[in-house]
Every structure is written in structure tokens, then in C-alpha cells.
């Protein structure tokens, strides 16, 4: 490989919250050991792509960091990336800069639903989906995923029934899916989108993990599949997961329909979420290039090897723990129900005793019981130590 994904950067010398026990403790509302291994927050441990680092250094040398706005080069970069990665022709005027995908979801909920409306999500799913809906005084409506023979699927019959209720006005789709790692097939996406169209449900597609897809699978931007979807729905994306630049606060909505886009932007401004980040803009322009694409491809290859490593490690050393192999994302969804320890004891042993900070499955809603989400976007040496700590504590004899 041209790039070294085994190199470890000491993030304790930065203000990155992931590696500071006090910050993690504040998040979990408990004391966390200083020797923790953080496998929770969904950013990676890889040094940023050199093309981005160099662009940011060049920008620092300009010496002024006032208010900024994306120019033609930003929009051109986003269009280039969508064409290169997904063969999707995006027009610059469809693109709006937003600080994060989570912010984009929040904006959309406030712009296209009213208090008391139902918002459909597919749990177990990224936990801010539910918290944003609740904080916006909307109702969480769970169209829970179904696990059949070790494979997660959408419950489309139930989705049809839920979408048919007039009080349910929105759906948030996670594509690829966090935490299960599913990369939805074209047929699954179109069936879900057709149901939303039929019942006038606004569909917001969170595609932040769209670049991280493993061999044998393909990510399809929902809006690229049918002109009707582009006319009615919202696409959200960002370089944050792919290039580990979440702290630069650069994401984008892609909304082809002008009236929908204008309503989105109007609410964004009302929420004071329209200020841009100087370095975020630069990171997008640098990342969405041939050099960025080369780096991203090698990163995905390395992480696929990490997935292979976890799969083999579990089979050999951790009986009773299984993993449905992720098709995308750098997140592994571990099923520990075979250990018969229960959620509280699993949390005690993994998070507190082993000091491996994974996200407990129940945080993702129904279907997450006795599961943990493990972030494998890291050098293999870190992953090895984390798994060995977990094994030691999970299989120790109780007094």
C-alpha cells in the first residue's frame, strides 16, 4: 500500500474527545479508566489523507480566518465525487453546505414536519435519529429491521402500513446502515422510496458512510435511482467518516427540487446553522479529488482486512459471540447474547473492566439488546489489544 494505515498517532496530545477519559466519562455519565481503548465514537484512528493535510497547511499560511463561503471549487468537487464514486450527475445548485449530517436531519425535521408528527426510523439505528426526533417534539415511529438467517432486512410490509398513516410524515433512512453494516440493494431502496412517495412521506437519506463499502457490494445514492426521488427527497452526505475530518464540520445536502431546497435553507438560517467552516471547505475540495479517491480506496481495503480479522478472532477465541459481517461502514455489530450475561453485566465487563469503550446495543433502540457496536477503523494493533481485553474479561470466572 502507498499509505500506512498501521501508523499510530497519539491523539491524547490533541483535544479529540474520543481519547480523553473525562470527556468519555461525561458522555457515559460515569468514571472511565485512563487506560481505556476507545472503540465507540465513529471516527477513525488513521492519519488524515496527505492531500487534505497539505491543503490545510496551505490555507493556514494565508493567515486570515474570517467568515467564509464555498466558492465554485467546492461545488465542483462535490459534483466530481458523486460522479466518480456513484456515477451520479449532480448539479452545483442542488448543493447546500451544512455543518453536519445530524444537523441536516434536524433541519429537515423542522422544515418538513410539525410537532406531534411521526417520524419513521429503522431501529436498531444510529441513536441520534431517535433523540433528534424527540427533542424536536415529534414522535419516533419504529419500522424495526428484521434479522433473518444472519441478514438484516427492511420490514417493507410494516413500512407500508406505517407510511399510510397520515400522522407519519417523514422517514429517516440510514444508508449504509449504522450499526448493522447493511448496504441496501437497489431493489430495497426503491421499494422503500416508492412507499414514501405513494403516501407523501418526506424521505431523508443519511448517506455519510456511502464511500465505505466492501467488495461485492455497491452503494446507490437514493436520489440517483429515480427522477421522482430527486424531485421529492433529500440526500445528506459528508467526507467526515471517509477521511476522518468530522471535526472540520463540513457536510452537504443535495436537494434537486428548488422549492424543497429553499424551504430547507430557510429553516437552516432560522436555526443559525448556516455559518461555514474555513477549513471544512478546504477539506472537501482536497478530499474529493483523484488523490483523495486513491487514499480512500486503500483505507477501505485495510478496513476490510480488519473485518476479516475480527471475524476470525471471534470464531477462534470468543465462543458465543457472533458478528453479522458488515457490507459497509467501519462498524461491527457484535451479538453477545450467546454468553447469557445480560446487558448490565456485558457493560460492566467490556466498558468498565476491560476498558474497551464500545457503544451498548440498547442505545440503538429495540433489537440492540445484548449487542455492542465495535469501531474497527483503526490500526490492527489497537484492534488486537481491544479484542484481547474483551476476551479476557468476558470469559473470566465469576466469584
Short description:
With 399 residues, the protein is α/β, with parallel strands linked by helices. The protein folds into two domains: 11-47 and 295-393, Aspartate Aminotransferase, domain 1; 52-291, 3-Layer(aba) Sandwich (Aspartate Aminotransferase, domain 2).
The structure class reads alpha/beta
Strand order of the largest sheet: 2-10-9-8-7-3-4
Number of strands: 15
Number of self-contained structural domains: 2
User: What is the molecular shape?
Assistant: globular
Mean pLDDT: 96
State the end-to-end distance.
48 Å
| CATH topology title of the largest domain | Aspartate Aminotransferase, domain 2
Strand content: 5-15%
Under the CATH scheme, which architecture of the largest domain would be assigned? 3-Layer(aba) Sandwich
Helix coverage percent: 40-55%
Q: Could you state the CATH homologous superfamily of the largest domain?
A: Type I PLP-dependent aspartate aminotransferase-like (Major domain)
Poorly predicted spans: none
Oligomer: single chain
**What is the CATH class name of the largest domain?**
Alpha Beta
Helix-strand string:
HEHHEHEHEEEHEHEHEHEHHHEEHEEEH
Tally of DSSP helical segments: 14
Radius of gyration: 21 Å
Largest sheet: 7 strands, mixed
Keywords: Aminotransferase, Transferase
Organism: Petralouisia muris
Protein name: Pyridoxal phosphate-dependent aminotransferase
